[in-house]
Design goal:
35% helix
C-alpha cells in the first residue's frame, strides 16, 4: 500500500513540474530586441536564440524567415542546430501593417542586437553571418549592402562576416511594387532594392537559388544579374549556387548544407594572416 502511495506521489510530482520553453533544445524564446514602443512592435519584435552546449566564441547565424513580407514567423532551422553555431531567429513587422522600409529597419535592429548580445550566448560578434529565405533573403541583402540601415544603430555593415541570402529578391520587393500598382512581373530598382546597393567592399556574398525553371518568377535570373554586377564592381568574394530540380520552397533544405560549407570557408579565409 505504501509503495503504491509513494509511486503515485512521485508520478504526480514529475508530471506537475511545468515545462520551461526557454530550455527546450537549448532555445531561449521570445526575447524582445527593439526599442519601438507601439503595441504591434512590442508584440512582433522578438527573437529566439539557439545556443549549443558548452560553446564560446562560436559563429553566429542570424536567420530571417520568409513569407513575402506579409506572413511567416521566426523559427530555427533544425539543420543549423548541433553544428557549432549560435542561431538567432528574429520576427519582424509585416506588410500591410507597416511599409517595406519598416521591415528592413526591424531586420537592421535585430542584427544590431546580435552584435551587442552575441557574447552572452557563447557567440563571437566578429563571426556574424546573416542569412534567410525568400523575404528573409531580401532582408539579408538590404541590411548588409545598404550601409545606412545599420548605421542608424551604430553598427558598420562591413563588420558582418558574410551575407548568404536564399532565393531573395534583389529588385524592388513585390510588396513595394504592389503598393505602387506595379505588376509582379514588371521589374523596378529603387533604393529598396539590393541591386541599387551593389558595392565592391561589401561582406562576402553567397547567393543560393532553386532551379531556374521552377523558381518563383525569374528569381534565379535576377540573382544571376546581381552576382554579375557584384563581380563587375570588383567584389572579391561573391558566389552563386543554383540547386537544380528544386523549386522556391524545396531549395531551402539542401541550401543549408551550402551555407555551412561556405561559413567554414569564409571564416577560415578570414583567419588567414594578411600578406
Amino acid at each position: 500500500m505504501m509503495k503504491h502511495f509513494l509511486t503515485s506521489v512521485l508520478t504526480f510530482i514529475i508530471f506537475s513540474i511545468p515545462a520551461v520553453a526557454s530550455d527546450t533544445n537549448g532555445i531561449e524564446k521570445d526575447i524582445p530586441y527593439s526599442s519601438k514602443n507601439d503595441r504591434y512592435s512590442k508584440e512582433r519584435l522578438k527573437l529566439d536564440v539557439y545556443r549549443p552546449d558548452n560553446v564560446s566564441n562560436a559563429p553566429v547565424v542570424i536567420w530571417f524567415h520568409g513569407g513575402g513580407l506579409t506572413g511567416g514567423s521566426k523559427s530555427i532551422p533544425s539543420e543549423l542546430m548541433n553544428s557549432g553555431f549560435v542561431v538567432i531567429a528574429p520576427n519582424y513587422r509585416l506588410t500591410p501593417h507597416v511599409n517595406v522600409e519598416d521591415c528592413i529597419d526591424d531586420a537592421a535592429e535585430a542584427v544590431a542586437w546580435a552584435f551587442a548580445n552575441a557574447e552572452k550566448y557563447g557567440g563571437d560578434k566578429s563571426k556574424i553571418i546573416v542569412s534567410g529565405h525568400s523575404a528573409g533573403g531580401f532582408l539579408t541583402s538590404m541590411v548588409g549592402l545598404d550601409k545606412s540601415r545599420l548605421d542608424r544603430y551604430g553598427v558598420n555593415a562591413d563588420s558582418i562576416s558574410a551575407l548568404i541570402p536564399y532565393s531573395g529578391q534583389v529588385i524592388t520587393h513585390f510588396s513595394d511594387r504592389k503598393k505602387m500598382g506595379i505588376d509582379p512581373l514588371t521589374p523596378l530598382i529603387d533604393r529598396n532594392a539590393p541591386l541599387f546597393h551593389v558595392r565592391k567592399d561589401a561582406p562576402p556574398y553567397v547567393i543560393i537559388t532553386g532551379d531556374a525553371e521552377e523558381e518563383l518568377y525569374g528569381r534565379y535570373e535576377e540573382n544571376l544579374y546581381m552576382w554579375r554586377m557584384m563581380r563587375l564592381t570588383g567584389h572579391p568574394d561573391v558566389k552563386i549556387y543554383k540547386i537544380d530540380g528544386h523549386d522556391h520552397g524545396q531549395m531551402v533544405h539542401p541550401a543549408h548544407h551550402i551555407l555551412k560549407k561556405e561559413i567554414k570557408r569564409i571564416l577560415h579565409k578570414k583567419e588567414l594572416p594578411s600578406k
